[in-house]
Design goal:
The complex is a heterodimer. Chain A is mostly helical. Helices cover 70% and strands 3% of the residues of chain A. Chain A has a single domain, classed as ABC transporter involved in vitamin B12 uptake, BtuC (Orthogonal Bundle), CATH 1.10.3470. Chain A contains eleven helices and four strands, in the order ββααααββααααααα. The chains are: A mainly alpha, B mainly alpha. Chains A and B meet through helix 4, helix 9 and helix 11 of A and helix 5, helix 10 and helix 12 of B.
Amino acid sequence: MFEIFGIPSTALFGQLLIGLINGSFYALLSLGLAVIFGMLNIINFAHGAQYMMGAFAAFLLLQYLNLNYFAALVLAPVLVGLTGIAIERCMLQWLYKLDHLYGLLLTFGLALIIEGVFRHQYGASGQPYQMPDLLTGGRNLGFMFLPNYRAWVIAVSLVVCLATWFVIERTKLGAYLRAATENPTLVRAFGINVPRMITLTYGFGVALAALAGVLAAPIYNVSPQMGGDLIVVVFAVVVIGGMGSIMGAIVTGFGLGIIEGLTKVFWPEASNTVIFVIMAIVLLVRPAGLFGRRA
Amino acid sequence: MERVVDPLTSVATRSRIDGETIAFVVMVAALVVAPFVAYPVFLMKALCFGLFACAFNLLIGYGGLLSFGHALFFGWASYVAAHMAKVGVISLPYPVGWHAWSWLVIPLPPLPPELAILFGTAVAAVLGVVAGSLAIRRQGIYFAMITLALAQMMYFFALQAKFTGGEDGIQGVPRGRLFGILDLSNELTMYGVVVVVFLGAFLLIHRIIHSPFGEVLKAIRENEARAISLGYKTDRYKLLAFVLSATLAGLAGATKAIVFQLASLTDVHWTMSGEVVLMTLVGGLGTVFGPIVGAVIIVGMQNYLASFGEWVTVIQGVIFVFCVLLFRRGVVGEIAHLFRIRL
């Protein structure tokens, strides 16, 4: 037991861990937003609602089909991703020719619908979701106690983020994606089905949100409004990072989670607002965002 | 020769004065008759939100800037007005070292309603300057996200600050006597005051839209790069539009606090920002009368569907989706399009 700046080390590392966990969710969500924005030029306001849907999907799969956490970890993103694909086919695809703001407004409406339906069905209070037996417990690292599940969340999130980065930046498929972001008409001329790629991209971004939701389910309760306030913070993260770069979204997500955690140690009252304050400072110093390109 | 067509309103300038004048006369007549037909409280709520939506529309409809954080100005003005009318004492914290705060206390008595509203509006204007100068540094979607994030930050401040009363809000705000003469506890007197405030602000917005400043604003909305190349300092225009919009939104919020004798967290939450977007969208973006019609529709809907609980949110969401997909002109926009007039 030792102290850093007058703060007991366990408290410091404990908050750092919580910061990393929050950072994992920020990274997964802002990554999804960035991927969707890159292809569709739409800010997906329903992202928070889809994150909540992921958590509920895990909850319902356990409740009615008795499918365990690990099955849900795969199935929930697929199912929610499919609803995303339906949304893109039925609604979003008609908006690409309009001002981008209409996409924001439409997905905002969708978020209201989804959250309202779930709140009507399950009430405002949360439903607990059992942590999988395999991941309960924890280990003592000497300077702090590390619960296994928290380590798992950070690891999964890191792996998924890096895999997404690898696919987009280093594979042929990713090259098509990036090319279609730059110039869809030209890519179509090469015989690549760009509309289908756009559909799948939206589905994938939504699935990332749902995955974050499943990861969050055992930590926070599964509740209809779990996504609403989170998405506003993620928007601030996205503004800070700029949506131009995949790696930027990941780094900013984790970094801001850690900063938020540390703020909780040194100045608890400011922990809710620190990300917004950082956003204001970044806007003053570097309006395009830390990793953004000037539009 | 190619005509420049206003994408949001479909202009037919020929009969513009007729349409607007007629609509204005109809509106004033409706405002006079209304208290004998409907509950004054409902009407005052609709008027406050109508003014709020008009202020919001000034920014999106004419400046092309979608603010998703207008609850910030509405809610904070409402808090400040409520506080000034009920308590009056201003305590400002200032730092005296790390983690240490001291309070600068200005002992004011509870203020009469007109000064309370003025105070609330002024605070909204100041917040507008701060939030606006940050937000206009980015365009389009980022602008929306920044305003939303700033509003959320101020929501947390409202949650934690002492004077706002946290979850309880500021309750039992006295309506008082306007200029020391008019007793506002009378519903009809209060209604008259709200109508005067509303019409004054409405005419001001109308004046702004049709002023040279408003024309430059529209030019920026259509093509900012071209406006810059013509020598306009577009950032200044955008900031001024933002501050005007924030101030008028504040006026609406402050008036609402006096009318309902209440300021609460609902008014600063981002769902309120969403609601004002919805009102404007339903009525018609970029139309003069649209936001008012939209506010009446949405407030009326909330009133009559209140017993449906959560379904109100769902219905609002459905209206959002419907408007964006199939009804982008809004009610007033459709009427204006149908009769080829400008409303």
